Amino acid sequence: MRYIAQWFEEHYLDTPLELTDSIDRYQAHSGPCLNYSPQRLRDAECWIEPHELLFEEKIRSVPIAVSTNGTFPIFFCGKGDLGFDCWAASFYLISRYEEYLPHRLDAYGRYDAVQSLAATHGFLDRPLVDEWMASLVQCLRVKFPNLPLRTNRYQHLATYDIDESYAYRYKSFIRQIGGASRDLLQGRFGSLATRLSCWCRVQKDPYDAYGVLQTLHPAGVDRPIFFFHVAHQRGRYDKNISPHHPAQKKLIRSLAGLYDIGLHPSWYSVGHPHSLIAEKGTLDKIVGWWVTASRQHYIRFQLPDTYNLLLDAGIQDEYSMGYGSVNGFRASTARSFYWFNLARNQITSLRVHPFCYMEANSFFESGHTIEQAEAEWRQLEQAVRRVQGRMITIWHNTFLGTQKRFARWGDRYAKWLREQS
User: What is the DSSP string of 66-135?
Assistant: First the structure.
């Protein structure tokens, strides 16, 4: 209860919120009052009839019946002024309670989005918790017109995952020969020609979009975050060039001089904690400071284990809260929050920043055309604007380069990005 109250205060109130279980103290208070108890206590109050969830200490399968009040989906229904316990319901979604219960994994070993409450009941495309809190704020504003409220405004944060810095350049001779052989055997002559041209430095590498990105984000205007994959070993899902390669170091340092840098922990590191520590140490050394932000490669994480490892590694800001298969609001909010470790029943110092759109989900998972993809990210943008939240997007350098299959994606994104400023 303290956790969700603090989150509500941080994002919506411009005055301290004091919790008390003393009825006498509550009744004597002359200012605005929010009653979270089984019965109404006074006329001048906003009353929420509590569900038992916030008073429990063990994780259990909680019966949930999702209905609607005509404006938005609700659950944990009760009496009260809103007709449901918006605090307990918000805690259930923000804490990702359902991901601590028995669940199935997708092909990449991740929590399968289709089994989530949001997907099952059709509100994955809505920051529902923020809509609930706006309703609670309205209730308080009606009863207490002079209540100091925080002024929120829509924000956009651009983030970029650099899974593979270059398609062909700076890769080892063996990898080049192997790739060229596959192109030849599979009849991909266009790819072979591009590979040879890049190898001979006649043509720009198709993944080299860094000049474009610096044009999109003029230094000093905004601060996007670049998440770099710096695995020490290669694998099926870890294909970047070595972080020790001079070209990779130069690239990272050039962007670190202009923007914020985060770690993109490798696929391999999920099952090998020592690799996570080593990768972070490598990135720290390259940029010359202690990197504190991260986002999981392939959005591959499991609660609570992955977040515990990130905390142990010194990560303070985590950007993986979204799905790697479908776009939308995994935690049903467009606002950051401190991770609540349900396994230990405690608030942690790990700040979670949820994203709602990744272009790879549109292209690879949904098979969208650029027109369909743009319609999707604009729909999500409007959902975030309605609640005055922060829209975090993920793009990859591969989509913004010169690969033919991503033609026009970069132009559409650049046009939309200019509208955000």
Answer: -EE-SSSEE-SB-STTTSB-HHHHHHHHHTTGGGGSS--B-TTSSB-GGGSHHHHTT-TTS-HHHHHHHH
Note the CATH architecture for domain 155-168+206-420: Alpha-Beta Barrel (3.20)
User: pTM of the prediction?
Assistant: 0.95
Interatomic CA distance for residues 188 and 383, integer angstroms? 42
Closest C-alpha to 330, from 135, 96, 170:
96
What is residue 181's predicted lDDT score, i.e. its pLDDT? 67
What is the number of alpha carbons within 13 Å of residue 299 lying toward its C-beta? 25
Enumerate residues 6+ apart whose C-beta is below 8 A from 114: 120, 326
Say if CB 318 and CB 337 are below 8 A apart.
Answer: no
Return the number of other C-beta atoms located less than 10 Å from residue 28's C-beta. Answer: 8
User: Per the structure block, which two tokens stand in for 321?
Assistant: 């809260």
For residues 250 and 196, give the distance between their C-alpha atoms in angstroms, rounded to a whole number: 23
Cβ neighbours for 202, distance < 8 A, ≥ 6 positions apart: none
Nearest CA-CA partner of 291 in 319, 270, 268, 250: 319
Name the 3-class secondary structure at 148.
coil
pLDDT attached to residue 182: 72
Residues forming a β-bridge with 226: 160, 261
Which residues are CB-neighbours of 176 under 8 A, at least 6 positions away? 168, 195, 199
- Crossing angle for the helix pair 409-420 and 370-386, to the nearest 10 degrees: 20
Mean of per-residue pLDDT scores for the chain: 94
What are phi and psi for residue 9, nearest 5 degrees?
-60, -45
pLDDT band at 231 (very low <50, low <70, confident <90, very high): very high
b/e code 292-325 from CB counts within 10 Å (16+ = b): bbbbbbbbbbbbbebbbbbbebebebbbbbbbbb
Question: Do the Cβ atoms of 62 and 97 come closer than 8 Å?
Answer: yes
Residue 374 to residue 412: CA distance in whole angstroms = 8
